[in-house]
Sequence to fold (316 residues):
Amino acid sequence: MLNNRKLKRNYISRSHLTNSSTTKLKKPNWIRVKAPISTGYLSTKELITKANLNTVCESASCPNIGECWDKGHATVMILGDVCTRKCGFCNIKSGAPSDIDILEPYRLAKAISQLNLRHVVITSVDRDDLKDGGANQFVKSIYEIKKLSRNITIEVLTPDFQRKEGALAQIVNAKPDVFNHNLETISRLYKNVRRGASYNHSLNLLKKVKKLSSTIFTKSGIMVGLGEKIEEIETLLKDLRKADVDFVTIGQYMQPSKDHLPVIKYYTIEEFKKIENIAYNMGFLLVSSSPLTRSSYHADDDFHKLKIARDALLNV
Ligand code: SF4
Fold:
């Protein structure tokens, strides 16, 4: 593991987050979320807290937490709650991460079995400090979940595993049902939005997953409202199709705090629908495009839609 000082030098920079003086756009009235107060929400929260697990729902301040947790749909974030990168849009803490918690996969599997889910999404922080980028913890988590919840389907939402030889194959061999890796934004905005990541590397990663397993579903997501143009979104969608990605999610970027990148534009419902049509015309099996779409939003229902869409295609 790298020491803290080296980590800071290699991965963490705040120089691209200089937005505090930017005028804030008013959130439009079509973006409404359910307040996190229901009994379903509270029991999910209690279970996650008791199991000492981290979730991206809380760490990223996801607006859908009230709705998702009411149904027990929490996206657990493994490998700690501190990320080794500092993306301009992301609310997850960054810095020197903690040691790997070897009991995490067991606690995770137990909590998932208690939630009684059909489909679960597991994600992680970026762990550039680890030799395998944290791939082995994904694998262990998949195995432990399968042991306790035999009929569950598993979706992994992974980091890009840059310079982590063999990490990808390790995860694909554990046979998750869906492999999700987000491009997050168009190529031109990478240096501000996903500093430390590479658009082409992320595309290649998705392409490689399909080469390693032709039956796995691949999925990727983007946020809009960061200053991209519609033609640039079209190029990104074409690139994802060339990488044989099955499912794309498109949601509105919302600024988590004044220290994060500002919202340049709020897309209307009609504009989301237009992007959805463009994507469907390119041949994606499934497209989710709406202001509140996030990569794990409605992942359970969407997994079933994906299977139906593939079966329909194979039976033509
Ligand atoms: S959309 Fe995903 S991250 Fe947000 S609350 Fe739902 S499950 Fe959690």
Summary: Confidence is low (pLDDT under 50) at residues 1-21. The chain is about 40% helix and 15% strand. Residues 161 and 185 are 18 Å apart (CA to CA).
